[in-house]
Amino acid sequence: MRQWRFEVFNRSGFSDVHGKSVSEDIRELGISSVEAVQSAKVFLIEADFDDGFAQRLGKELLTDPVCEEYYVGRSGAPAGLAKATLIEVHLKSGVTDPVAESVMAAVADMGVKADNVRTARKYVLLGEITQSQTDTIAKKILANDCIEDCVIGNEAEPPSPHLKPYELQIVHWPIRDLDDDGLIALSKEKDLFLNLVEMQTIQKYYQQLATEPTDVELEAIAQTWSEHCVHKTLKSSVDMSIDGEQVHFDNLLKDTVFKATKQLNKKWCISVFVDNSGVVEFDADSAICFKVETHNHPSALDPYGGSATGIGGVIRDPMATGMGARPIANTDIFCFGEPDKKLQDVPKGVLHPRRIMKGVVAGVRDYGNRMGIPTVNGAIYFDDRYIANPLVYCGNIGLIDKSKCFDNPQAGNLVVVVGGRTGRDGIHGATFSSGQMTHEYETIFSHAVQIGNPITEKKVLDVLLQANQAGLYEAVADCGAGGLSGAVGEMGKELGVEVDLEKVPLKYAGLHYTEIWISEAQERMVVAVKPENLKAITKIFDDENVESTVIGKFTGDKKLTLQYDGREVAKLDMEFWHEGVPKYSRKAVWKTPQLAEPSIAEKDNYNDELLQILSSYNVASKEWVIRQYDHEVQGGSVVKPLTGVNNDGPGDAAVIQPKFNSDRGLAISCGMNPLYGDIDPYWMALAGIDEAIRNLICVGGRVDRIALLDNFCWGDCTKPETLGPLVRAAQACYYGAMAFEAPFISGKDSLNNEFACEDGTQISIPSTLLISAISIVDDINKCVTMDAKKASDLLFIVGETKNELGGSHYYKINGHIGANVPKLDLKTAPEIAKRISAAIAQGLIVSCHDCSEGGLAVGLAEMAFAGGLGIEADLRGLPRSKDCCRVDAQLFSESNSRYIVEVEPENYDAFAKLMLNLPFGQIAKTTEEKTLIIKAEDGKNVIESDLDSLKQAWQKTFSW
Amino acid sequence: MADVKAIVLRAAGINCDMETEYALELAGAKAKRVHINRLIEDKTALDEFQILVLPGGFSYGDDVAAGKILANQIVHHLFEPIQKFIDEGKLVLGICNGFQVLVKTGVLPGDNSTKRQEEVTITYNDSGKFEDRWVHLAPQTKKCIFIKPGRKIYLPVAHAEGKVVTRDTPTLEKLKSEGHVAFKYVDENGKEGNYPINPNGSVDSIAGLTDTTGRVLGLMPHPERFVRPTQHPRWSRLRQKPDSDGMTIFKNAVKYIQENF
Question: Class for domain B5-260, per CATH?
Answer without folding.
Answer: alpha beta
